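Dig into this one:

. . .
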Amino acid sequence: MKIQIANLSQDITEEELREVFEVYGEVLQVEIFKEKPGKPKSALIYMADEAQAWRAVEALKGRNLKGRPLKIVHPRRPHEIGKMGPRRHAGDREGGARGGRRF
């Protein structure tokens, strides 16, 4: 299961994030995405087991990590998505499904 986190400290490392999440289960991969050179914006944590990942989400959301509250971005359990799947926008900026000129 993939967990997206945000509000990271500038000096956080992949190894530090791995250590925090490994308390809850096997971490397959950690990726940090930077906003500006050297400034982390968010990260993805890939965990092997969904149940362990959900335990991590519940335990860590809002937890202070290197002086900043950890923000878990959009994790939803399958029953929260609904029968039709996640909501998506219908159309694009050029008109798409909303109409627009044909010719």
Notes: Residues 37 and 66 are 19 Å apart (CA to CA). Residues 2-74 form a domain with the Alpha-Beta Plaits fold (CATH 3.30.70.330). Strands lie at 2-6, 27-36, 39-47, 64-65, 68-69, 71-73. The chain has a mean pLDDT of 81.
